[in-house]
Amino acid sequence: MKSRLPFLCFCMFAIGINIAMAQSKLKSQDPDSRSAKSGSSVQTGIPDPSSRMDWWRDARFGMFIHWGVYAVPAGEWNGKKEYGEWIRNSAEIPLEEYDQFRQKFNPVKFDADAWVKMARDAGMKYIVITSKHHDGFCMFDTKQTDFNIMSTPFKRDPMIELAAACKKYGLKFCFYHSIMDWHHPDYLPRRTWEKDRTTEGADFNRYMAYMKAELKELLTNYGDIGVLWFDGEWENTWNEKYGKELYNYVKSFQPNVLVNNRVGAGRLDMEGLTKSGAFGGDFGTPEQQIPATGLPGVDWETCMTMNDHWGYNKADKNFKSTKEIIRMLADIASKGGNYLLNVGPTAEGLFPQESIDRLAAIGKWMKVNGESIYGTQASPFKELSWGRCTRKTAGDRTILYLHVFDWPSAGKLVLSGMMNTPEKAYLLADLQRMPLKTERDNDALVISLPKDAPDPINSVLVLELKGKLDLTEPPVFTTEFDTFVDSLPIAITTNRENVEVRFNIGPTEPSASSALYSKPIGIKTTTTINARCFRQGLPVSGTITREFRKVDPVRAQYPDRVMYPGLRYSYYEGAWDSLPDFNKLTPLQEGIVPDFIVTPRSQDERFGFVYSGFVLIPETSVYIFYTGSDDGSRLYIDDFPVVNNDGLHSMAEKSGTIALAKGYHRIRVAYFEQTGSDNLVVLLKGQTLPKQVLPQNWLFFN
Ligand code: H79
To answer: To which H or E segment does residue 324 belong?
Structure first.
């Protein structure tokens, strides 16, 4: 459906990270997939994407501020008290009536210095504030519309004051700017309930020009901007083309400004990540949720309310506790993400007292423990029963920060799954850094702790390690094949140092006396293999086990008719969300094609193809077939369903396995495209055949 910018691929992989170690500032590479720093971008004139994002990755914690004229009703309309910044839409307030809030918006108690200081003291490194929310009201001095802060009794531009305060306190100043706009006459669509707002003469391209003019002001009048945080991109008028245009436009004023993924049109719901293949800006934006696991190679930021509303709601007292917030911050950092925590100030210009209290308490914790959050990377461990882990790695040195939520009553903390013995272990809250006793219990490190936790919410323990992180990961089978026809070489690898891999043929776990792995194991019958890492006669990993099955290949077909190069195709039209039963439809066109091309058709969207013929398999083997398609596809060999890649999606690859004897086999591929871009590619891989596009000269019809 969507195409990918080559530039973005570069962002994803050419990312180096600058890590501040406990005492010294060292440069290094992250052991995760965010590594391999590229120096080449310097010559191209494009700012190095890694250094561009360094501050953001180091920051880990920022403040979101939702402030606008919706703070005047403070969440209440016609007796209902459930509203927030969406009040105009949810309570269906007509434009003229909503406009009245303007006259009542006079935040005389607004003190930019105090706001930014509260964020700074909470340990936050950036502020993202609503320059415009969905209601279209501009909280800055814009020349593009009167519907802005200068036409309120306040008559001051709070953004000028906030920009100055951010500069003073060393925070990055950032804007949230809504794409959706319920006020501008050129924005489309209208709300479904807005029966009397005509769309006549509305021109979305003119709206785009309006938004660009606002963004130009935001990027030229307020100094350096850290992030442009777009939102409200999901309506049908927005698309990837506009998104890329806006992305490039904002970077033309400030090349270093970061842009969130909602500038594009490929966000996957509130999980906030971008569909594969779609344009995703600089980082993903999970909203009100934390991903279940880390997302290697993806930058992301969870935004979250402190209570249940973004904009000020006077009745909403359902605030998260300081404990919840601090633990969420550690949880997010342990998964490699940022936390953007929201405050909804009042129409007087004050933070709610509950927010002030929580910010102060978080700040107290951050003052002691900030080092375990800033500039850290995701935990190397999958799950820790007592808390979370963050880390910093530089060269051969690693610091692990163990965030202990549940302080062990027996005074011993067990860290399973790592063989390194730390050079130092101490509590971050302990200024003396009194060494803690550590001992080894097989694959676990047992750390002796004082009886009482230094912090009832999250006490951080520091482990300083030298040498490569040695996690007790089992070895891996490198072959993709679980089945074979005649024989299969089984290769096993590990990237751990100073370990030997021992294996057993059969169901039993390997012991120190099992066979030592040195070269691929050749098998000729159905075989189960178990393998495990050992060091000095002791197991230092779990065991992997896999069964490799000998299978009979599907016999080749020998049609008695002559074979001709190419495939038969049938072409259909229709608006499908998944593959239809083409057998029940009448093709609009039929003919011969050299391979799986999707060009002989009369329209760009809403069409389908079925290709059928024979594939000449050169040698008996197990084969993996793949289809890459946008949208759905299915592949059948000799009527066996081999690949199911059905459904609406951008370019996606799926595979399936089948054992085939040498010779001709029937092949059929069904494909459909709904809207957006179209693509179909069929590939295969054999036991000795590298993965490749199914060659044209293997395809026949009769
Ligand atoms: O500014 C705050 C909210 O006002 C705004 N985003 C945060 C940062 C927000 N707008 N809408 N929502 C939150 C919830 C809306 C969700 C939905 Fe959809 C919009 C459901 C269907 C359309 C986005 C697109 C989520 C799923 C598809």
So the answer is: helix 322-334
Whether the Cβ atoms of residue 338 and residue 56 lie closer than 8 Å to each other: yes
Q: Is 310 in the pocket of ligand 1 (CB under 6 A)?
A: yes
Q: How big is the CA angle at 375 (ends 369 and 381), to the nearest 5 degrees?
A: 80
Distance 232 CA to ligand 1 centre (A): 7
Tell me the CA–centroid distance for residue 86 and ligand 1, in Å.
10
Residue 299 belongs to some domain of the structure: yes
Q: Which of 63, 269, 274, 302 to mutate to test the pocket of ligand 1 (most atoms within 8 A of CB)?
A: 269
Provide the CATH number for the domain around residue 626. Answer: 2.60.120.1560
Q: Which residue has a Cα nearest atom 1 of ligand 1? A: 310
| Residues 335, 210 within the same domain | yes
User: Does the beta carbon of 97 sit less than 6 angstroms from any atom of ligand 1?
Assistant: no
Indicate whether 358 and 429 sit together in one domain. no
Q: What is the DSSP letter of 119?
A: H
The answer to whether residues 454 and 337 belong to one domain is no
What is the best residue among 270, 302, 308 to mutate for testing ligand 1's pocket, by most ligand atoms within 8 Å of CB? 270
pLDDT in tens, 108-166: 999 999 999 999 999 999 999 999 999 999 999 999 999 999 999 999 999 999 999 99
Domain shared by 245 and 364, yes or no: yes
* Number of structural domains in the chain: 4
- pLDDT, tens digit (0-9, with 9 covering 90-100), for 288-335: 999 999 999 899 999 999 999 999 999 999 999 999 999 999 999 999
- Domain membership of residue 26 (yes or no) is no
**Residue 403 shares a structural domain with residue 334:** no
H-helix segments, 343-436? 353-369
85 lines ligand 1 (CB under 6 A): yes
d(CA 566, CA 694): 12
Are 147 and 136 in contact by the 8 Å Cβ rule? The answer is yes
Domain that holds residue 264: 55-372
301 lines ligand 1 (CB under 6 A): no
495, 516, 550 - which closes a domain? 550
Tokens 């002796």: give the residue.
Answer: 448
